[in-house]
Specification:
Elements: H1 2-20, H2 27-30, E1 52-63, E2 66-74, E3 85-86, E4 89-91, H3 99-111, E5 119-123, E6 127-129, E7 134-142, E8 156-163, E9 173-179, E10 185-193, E11 196-198, H4 200-214
Parallel strand pairs: 1-7
Antiparallel strand pairs: 1-2, 1-4, 2-3, 2-8, 5-7, 6-7, 9-10, 10-11
Length: about 220
């Protein structure tokens, strides 16, 4: 049974690696998870040279026969992404040789994912976030073992894992009212995972991953 699960995970990774090298869903998938009144967040013709660069890591691994991924809940602070659920990651530093290195470095710093052990599959479509003037590059990779996740308390409030299969359930995608940091309330599509609401840029990245797997 264990070898069967391993073979299924290997087959899933091989299939995803082929798909990620093809035509990505990109904006089509992103738009499914953006509030109607905030569609200006997607700007295909924006000047990327003015955006701050960042990267996140979508880590896939197998545990108990299930394919899982990792999310973090950011600390509460004065900023547009305060307390939000996201993939591990952060801004590009001058010491980084590439955005790939940024994603791996940040994931190791934030939740102890060993960058040297991550097998990189590829990248999803970059996403521009107007609210914070960041362009985010999602890096997809996997581990051949279950990670020992240790959140850095200076950046991360908590870390949790989730079965990828959850996002394909009929009730996974919902629309709820969200209160922003300026107390404005908006209705936004999101993914509900236990008590966690995944919305905004993270849900848009996740939407592309889901569509890519579905294709």
């Amino acid at each position: 049974m264990l070898s069967q699960h391993i073979n299924q995970f290997d087959s899933f990774i091989s299939s995803l690696e082929i798909k990620i090298r093809g035509i990505l869903p990109g904006e089509k998938a992103h738009l499914k998870m953006i509030p109607e009144n905030r569609k200006s967040l997607i700007q295909p013709l924006y000047d990327s040279s003015k955006a701050r660069q960042s990267a996140v890591l979508i880590l896939l691994f197998q545990e108990d026969g299930k394919t899982k991924t990792v999310f973090i809940k950011r600390n509460t602070y004065v900023g547009v992404h305060s307390g939000q659920i996201s993939f591990p990651g952060g801004r590009f530093e001058e010491s980084d040789s590439s955005l790939l290195e940024t994603a791996l470095r940040e994931a190791e710093e934030e939740v102890n994912i060993p960058s040297s052990e991550v097998c990189v599959i590829g990248m999803l479509s970059p996403l521009f976030i107007q609210a914070s003037n960041f362009e985010v590059l999602p890096v997809v990779g996997y581990l051949k073992k279950v990670p020992t996740l240790i959140p850095d308390p200076t950046e991360v409030e908590s870390v949790f894992t989730c079965e990828v299969e959850v996002f394909f359930q009929p009730n996974a995608k919902q629309t709820i009212e969200i209160e922003l940091i300026n107390k404005t309330k908006i209705k936004a599509p999101c993914f509900m995972v236990s008590d966690f609401c995944i919305w905004g840029a993270t849900s848009m990245i996740l939407s592309e991953l889901i569509e890519l797997i579905n294709n």
